[in-house]
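Lab manual, section 2.4: Encoding a predicted structure.

Procedure: take the sequence of the chain (475 residues), apply the prediction step described in section 2.3, and record the output as structure tokens. A sample record is shown.
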Amino acid sequence: MRRNRRVSRDDGAILPIVLVIATTLSVVVMSTATFVTADLRYGRVVEARADRLAAADGGLRYGIEKLRNFQTLCTTKAGSGGGFTTIFPPEINGATAEVTCRRVGNGISDVQGWGVVVTGSGVPAGQTLFTTQGAGGSSDNVKTFSGPVFVADPSRIDLQAKLEIKNGDLWYTSSNCDVPTAVPEIDSGYLAFTPDFFRGPLCTELKWDTGLFSAPTGGTVPTAPANPAPVPTVGCTVFGPGKYTSPPQLGDDNYFLAGDYYFENVTIDLQNQSLIAGFPANSGDTAKIASASCAAAQAADKQATLLAGGRGGATFYLGGSSKLNVLNGGELEIFRRKQGNTYLSILALDAPGAGYIASSLSFNAWILETKSGSNNDVAIHGLLWAPHTSVRLGNITNAANGQLLGGLVVATLDTQASASASAFAIGIESNPVDVKLLLISTATKDGAKTSIRAVIQYRPDNKDLAINSWRVTTG
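Recorded output:
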């Protein structure tokens, strides 16, 4: 009996041990579970951040590629202020991205770099905005525009000869870009793009005058001297800058000194005459029209102007009914002149000012017209800005020049050239001016954002760009 009582004293001793072990294991398990849960949460945060970073990186590279191919409106007026935002098309691992591009350096105007802009300003609904023709309406004539092209309404294009847009797209305005505007000329084969797998129509809800392009600024319309007398030299008549209210008394061969000219209600008719304005002084300038008679006057002007710290080229400001007609045997070449941040050759004044008036020509008048023929030449090296009036290039043949090399902004455009035309060109001449752009790509996932910013140095004429900086700013 006494032995059994000693054994009974150990009854229940195991329970506290079990409780201690159970409690300890519970604490360990709970601590481990808490750690695992925290680790999982952290893993999800890291994963989401990686997804946002990948999406932001992809969006920025997408924006840069669009910029390189001039498939963005960032360099236009839309890129000013808060900038122009596009949505990166696909989601990346559930993260969405948008890219905002804005100008941070205004070294170049918002229209520089566009080959052709047809605004349709004032043109009644249903009336053609852009026409191409060839001799006899032959469909075998192929004309080439280089660089991006804007036509306000592509359904109002009438192509009677084939047109190729090379290294550029056809932009247009629509209130609903989700529904593409039909362009019958593409289906008929009269409008083609090079390369055709990459280029084509592009839509924007912005209009030419409210969101895309603004008039060139920086130049000064000359109001004196009034009607300066020409200076006849051997074989060449030389004119100086100033204000002309009557047509200049042209000789057979004429040279307009580098500078600014204002013509008020003046029509310049060139028939069996040549007119060369300014001298080439910029990278990429190459004379298109030979002018042996005025070569000495041009060379003397260049030497004197550059020695005095001046600049080359000429700008014609047109007010009232002023216009230029290149008739049979006529030759016209205007070298571009830098005005502010635009290389400018011809500007139809949009508004009056002290000592000058606005252009009175509307869409149904030609501010520049060349007659059909094989012995008339036109070469405009700088921008031609005339958004409310029109340009017509006649049926240029053989080796005659019909070249608008600095961009063209008009209400309507009529171009003609026969199959034998060897010097018909409308596009963009190279220039050394660039613009700095800030691209911000922002990716969103799970309510958090990650952004990458890059400063891009860009030249619209040849699509060259350099990345000045690249950094992650948030996330």
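Check your result against the sample. Residues 14-68 form the longest helix (55 residues).
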